[in-house]
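Students often ask why we bother encoding 3D structure as a string. The short answer is that it lets us treat folding as translation between two languages. Here is a chain of 308 residues written in the first language.
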Amino acid sequence: MLVTGATGFIGRQLLHMLVEAGLDVHAVTSRDTPDGRELVTWHRADLLDGASIPDLCATVQANDLLHVAWDTTPGAYTRTPRNLDWLAASLQLARSFVEHGGTRIVGAGTCFEYAHQAAPCREGSTPLEPDTLYGTSKVALQRVLACYADEAGISCAWGRIFFLYGPHEHPDRLVSSVTRSLLAGREAACSVGTQIRDFLHVADVAAALVALLRSDVTGPVNIASGTPLTIRDLVLEIGEQIGRRDLVQLGALPLSPRDPPHVVADVTRLRDEVGFTPRFSLAAGIEDTVRWWSNEGHDASPARSTRP
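And here it is in the second language, the structure alphabet:
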């Protein structure tokens, strides 16, 4: 099988799970081959360079494609024109993959495809009304892949990933930023934290994608916990575990007018059709994250920005 985004936040979790499942894993990187990944066959290619894609697919001859590569640079990914580059590259990759014998594609989508609403987002019934270039590009890719899969006679699934956190996350994202500040004894400036979100540990996100890949489920599937959580409770849990709740400054930052008040998933398909349930509770997931930043994170470079 072929994995894109293999050095990213989710991708680095995926590889060992796929190897442990007994799969012949081929991974793509545009950088030097990572050390310590000898059980994976690495291919160096820049997917945004269209000329490299046919050679990659011809070399690997993969049956399955797990495509999680995308640009999610904090503060820029929702509006960058590079979303158009990734949309075009993803379509070329899918076509070349099928032309070289591929039979199943699992792509990584986002909760930002959905319209904002107070009810849980449900595949097939919640309207798709993205208000960013990022979300719009993901919707476009999912729709084209679904039609192409029908025409080509292959299987295609789409994991709509909600909010995630965990080891190796970019240091500027919410959980990692608050964790780093509190561990360093600095105040962590936050909004009032009334926004309701659906968070899942990155290892559970990866495990859900692997379960989706190995199932026969097609179409969109929400990848989330299904549990509503306020940002306030999330950051206070971090403060509690580090023992520095006093440094969590709720209300120090304004709420963005574009920040939706409620984004939570309905996970019925993930639970009942894919057969997946998360391993990490919130407390266990935050504990794992704090431990990683305490032991390794201060000296670790952030994962490449390829989170869906």
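Translate back mentally: Confidence is low (pLDDT under 50) at residues 299-308. Keep this in mind for the problem set.
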